[in-house]
Amino acid sequence: MTPNASAPTRRSFLASTAVATAAVAGGMPLLAACGGGSGAGSREGTTSGKDARKLLPAYVAGNVVTPDIPSKNGSAVGFTGKLDLADLKTSVPEKLGRGSRITVMSPFWGSPPKDGNAYYKAMNDLIGVDVVWRNQDGNTYDQKLGAVLASSDVPDVVVVPGWNMTGKIPSAVIGKFADLGPYLSGDAVKDYPNLAAIPTDAWQRSLFGGKLRGLPMPSSYVTGIVPLYRKDVFDEEGYEVPGSADEFMALAKEITNARAKRWACLDMKWTAFNAFGVLSGEEKSLGWNEVDGKLVYRVETDEYLEALEWTRKLFAAGVVHPDAELGKSNATDPGPKFAAGEFLIYNQDMSQWWSRTAEQATQNPDFEIWGMDIFGHDGGDPTLWAKNPAGIFAFVNKKASEDKIRDVLAVANVTAAPYGTKEYMLTNYGVEGTHYTVEDGVPTKTDQGNIDVMNAYVMIASPAPTIAHPDFPEVARGQVEWQQRMGAFTRKSAFYGMQITEPARWTNLSNDFEQLEDDFVRGRKKMSDVQQAVSDWRSKGGDELRDWYKKLLDENGSAAS
């Protein structure tokens, strides 16, 4: 695995770790909003504005390593050189751990390695702690999480992904986990320089119940869903990347030849939402924005209906691969048929830009995948909406002693080390010779590395979003520059970056829209069905939820920009 810490949602995390691609395949989730309250112990609302500023760690940019491509417009930083082990920097010169035994519960995809393996031992020796992992199946983690947090046996550290912040979990987070503010707020964070270099937006997402409780895995706020295309075939055939919805349709018709088993694309709904400027569906709070003084939810907008209508026209025109027509495209790996040229365009997480390149490098050297810039549907600039800047959090048991909390922070200070440091390499690759080798500046995991060095310590905390592929540096550059171009058109909606807990009675209000969207674009439902669903949403609680969000907005102000 090459490092790509730019997108910590369920889809992108699993895709980038390449351990559970089947779980990545579902549609863009309409995740429940989650988090803190406007006062300590509050179970609903948010913490932002002046209240948040008092709680946030001071930001101190790291200077141990200089990226080849600095962050711009919300992008990750990029590294485009080969890896020189002799040139690795040290970001944690002194062992900060005090020897505590720390139990950690975290989701894990795959078969957990044995306790006491060489990776765990090396990490614990470096930090000065004894981390004991209680790995749980990531596919059923929500069930285990609920049971553990309802019990009296809560581990010292519990990792909670944003997609599991549903039901009673946000309240449990507030009730069960420690306030890290005394150790991290303001200048206190300077005791942990790698944590101080985590962007402020990611820390704001770590506020729960009026306290700084979470250690974040930061993410670029630029959309992670990229229209990926076969650049080699485009170049060979003379196809031009489209700059509008009409141009995309014309190109799709030109590409498609069903008799030759070639279609233009898979289901392009996610790209349609971006091209038509639809508010984000990643988390419910991001789907709200103020328009002419009124709060509007994404499904109420003309842009939402127009994006679905355009996607439906692609299906109706016969330019979509039959797998997607049958609804199979999100349940199977699109890689083989994409490599075979059965379709030339699909939208997925950015991590597949690299993974598809790596898959085909030896067997099909002419294969080239690239990311298509998102176009405005009318041919102008797109209006894109920011996703949240952190989505996975580690929490410390509120019963932990000060020494134990500081040992957890010592772990986090190592795991948040930047790319190009010894700490980063150990965290992400393990022990040289045992877990990975380096040839021509490219690190490659050994069989033992693929067993031991999986999604463990990276779950405690991570550095600022980073993209680096020493094996395919041109892909790393392409990814970062794509984020920078798209970031220039990215706006922040009213509740961007806020950790919000909706009242439980409205938790499932929007859950049926994703299936309805998929049915509509495939012709199984009518536009009147979508409009009726929006009307039902309003009458069953949407209008009340609007009033609730408006009160939050009045109290905390807007993050929109």
UniProtKB/TrEMBL annotation:
Keyword DNA-binding annotated: no
Name of the protein: Extracellular solute-binding protein
Family: Belongs to the bacterial solute-binding protein 1 family.
Organism: Streptomyces glaucus
Pfam families (UniProt xref): SBP_bac_8
Coiled coil: none
InterPro entries listed in its UniProt record: Bact_solute-bd_prot1, SBP, TAT_signal
Taxonomic lineage of the native organism: Bacteria, Bacillati, Actinomycetota, Actinomycetes, Kitasatosporales
PROSITE patterns in the cross-refs: TAT
Cellular compartment(s): Cell envelope
Keywords from the named record: Signal, Transport
Secretion signal span: 1-32
Main subcellular localisation: other
Keyword Signal found: yes
Highest taxon listed in the record's lineage: Bacteria
